Amino acid sequence: MSLWPARLITILGCCACVSLTACGSLSTIEIDASDVRPVRHSRSESLQTEVDSLVQPLIAEAQTPGMVVGVLLPDGSTQFFGYGTIDQSGDRKPDADTLFAIGSLSKGFLGAITELLVDEGVLSWNDTLGDLLPPATPLSPDARKITLLQLATHMSGLPRQVFNTTTLKQFVQYLFSGESFYRQFNREFVLDYLAEFEAGNTGEPAYSNIGYGLLGYILELRTGLSIDNLMEQKLTAPLGLKCTGYTADELPCYSNRAHGHAGDQPKFIRRGNAVPDWQFTNFMRGSAGLHSNARDLLRFAAAHLRGDATRFNAALADALRVRFHRPKEAAAVAWIADDIGGQHIHYQIGLVGGYTSYIGIDAERKTAVVVLQNSFRWSNDVGHKLLLRLAHEPRKEAYDTKVVNAKARTE
Fold it and tell me: Is 332 helix (H, G, I), strand (E, B) or coil?
């Protein structure tokens, strides 16, 4: 009997373990500090020049079809910069209102809703799965002890996703078709997994997509409201986020939607070719199913930085508080806290289907950066670099909110 099928499965399994990170990351973005700390441009030059220097080479080299960068400045004003195209026609540039799938940035919204519900006394961070799930739910002893705070900070010990033969099969299909490999992760599947769950090392953050799927399910159970209704009542209506939601074609920005494209993944689809939108089960929507645009995401970021001392903003700001420490990265509620180049920042990354998204906050300087791309790219350091360069190049002038559509230049 040939050993090749077994070897093939082993090889594909190893590749899958590495590549099944396609809905987010909890690891540091590696950047060249020497390229960040010095001031690249004189203070007389515009913010657009700063952003152009980071983005235009990526467009010129076809690393991504399109990109939008949004910047929140300390005075509360915003700037938006659009590059490339939203689809393969090449005729339409993205802007502040262009709709993108944002993948794991969805977790930031779900974490914020959880913070608000804890502030209201509906939930407690010390609640365990044994307390939160229906009494008849079969849970292993380790699963029963997982707390709400551990779920929200990726400290539960739950894996990124359950890896089995079905996951492997769907992942291999994804490499050739671009279709989602989270199709099996519904409520029944994950609850069955929890019945046999054994905790490993929970002393370090372990990014878990299924953990946030479980968090969304718990919020629905405890409030009696759907994730969609919770999102509207707790965040999108209060913050005026008109183009943020789980059902893209119901949002007013749908006609200005960016289409996803292959990039670093899927491996067997040519870079720049269109790929299908990912569809999530109801259980996983809260983890990675949101759509939004740069304008709404900067409003969401700004709500964490306001100093008006309202309970709403205080609860959102509390999401940035580090709950668990480690030598470099630290775990906050949905956010990663990190010190880079002497600067303390919080950020989230979303990788889903044909899209890459980033949101970063410098709470001390009250700045934020959003980067949205309609291509899957492992390297997503534009946001980090821009946050750090803004910190080393203070800008005292006030900017009016506007959209700048910057044509990519090759010179």
Answer: coil
